[in-house]
Amino acid sequence: MRQILKQIGSGLSVALVTILMYGFVVLSFSALLLLVTSMEEGVATLTDQSVGFAASALLYGQGVGIRTSAMSLTLVPWGICLALIALVRAIAARTRQSIIALISAVCAWDALQYWFMQLALFERTDSIGSALAKTSAVMIVGYMLAWMYSDTPLHQWLHNQWTQLPVMLRKMARSSFILANISCSVLALCALITLCVWIYCGQDAVVLVWQQLGMDTGSRVLTSVLYIIWLPNLLMWAASWLAGGGFVLGSLAHFTMWSDTAQHVPAIPLFAIFPQAVEHSAWRIIALLIPAITCFIVLCVMLFSRKYYRIVQPWEEVRLALEQHSFDWRGLLLRLGMPLLMAFGAIINIAVVVTLCALASNGSLGFEQLNNLGVNIAQTTGAIVRPSAVGCFAAWLVSVIALSGQYVWVSIRLRVLSHNKDKSDKYTQDDNSQSSNQQTEQKEQESEQTVSVPRTVSSNIQYEKTENSPHSDENASQESHTSRPARSVTSVPIDPSM
Questions:
Q1: CB 218 within 8 A of CB 40
Q2: Is this structure's pTM higher than 0.85?
Q3: Using an 8 Å Cβ cutoff, are 308 and 172 in contact?
Q4: What sign has the CA pseudo-torsion 273, 276, 281, 285?
């Protein structure tokens, strides 16, 4: 029981601390705005309505519309709404989160908002149930963000479920989220730069509106600061304008890069900064290509990076695969199919985010002619998603061409090397055969020379003998006689009768 009471107290503390901080800021700004307006207009009764005005502002900051006899304001100020969600998350992160604490926080928050409805100066456009649902959503979203990213059983359960998914699926989901996040961030940055350019180019028109309304310096500064609460809405309108979708101010004005039709627009300083048509076609083309170029560059970096997919394989692996004829078709299909599925998931994420942002940025400022302020959801989504899809598909085609070119280049090099090797082997064989032939010929010549040398010497000797003196024959005969062995002579007796 004591644990339950602690959890209930934790939830109540989150609601009370949040409303004290949020209410103090809104009440202070409302009182200052009414004070400055009363001083400039000379009306002393405006400051007496500070509490009712602040209560209406507290509800309006959470999406509850305001209705008066002259206008119906349902354009949600997402600047203050997101700041409130961040405040709830920061306060809830310092407490122990639980389902009981969340229920108690939502109940306390709704009770306070119902009290503010009774104190509100302006009439609501939403019913009590709808208004309480919107305020409850703010508390629930902020509390759940704190609960998901803290060390709680819910965070551990989500982490376990995530780790149980296949590695390939987790990699694809993470990569698609990163690609969609970077693309939307770059588009938001370009929209912010565009909005700054609008403010710079439209400052003279804003000054004219201030002069027409008779606003002094104090009210000019405070209203300019007040417009910050619609900054996310203006960024979405600027992003749609950059992508070619444009935005409208009811039936009074339609702004695109090709045309700007404004007829009897109310004298509101914020409307004076909206742009005119872009004259140079080059700037229009560059603006239209921002989503495509962003997705192309980011996806190319992811496809060729070692951290993500690395479509192009190491040269040594490709060479070995081609030499051994062990081509992995399944690995190749996975290598090319996973980035394609990842890009498809990123396009879906971008489409969902753009659709939700376009839907949330719309609203109304009046009953008839200004009952629709914002962008066309279908046109804006198509204008942003189509170039993004083209950029992703182009990056994937570049990776396919690079991978094919790698295999073709390696195969050509291998063929050239094998051809050169065959030629060198052939030349080596020819050289060996020629050298062996030369060796055999040389051996034959040497053998012939060894046989012909004695004959030549004997002939020379004979020639020399014939060329000697005339006594050569006698000397020769004498030599022959001397060289011959001596005969043995025996004496035989002679018979006298003969």
A1: yes
A2: no
A3: no
A4: positive
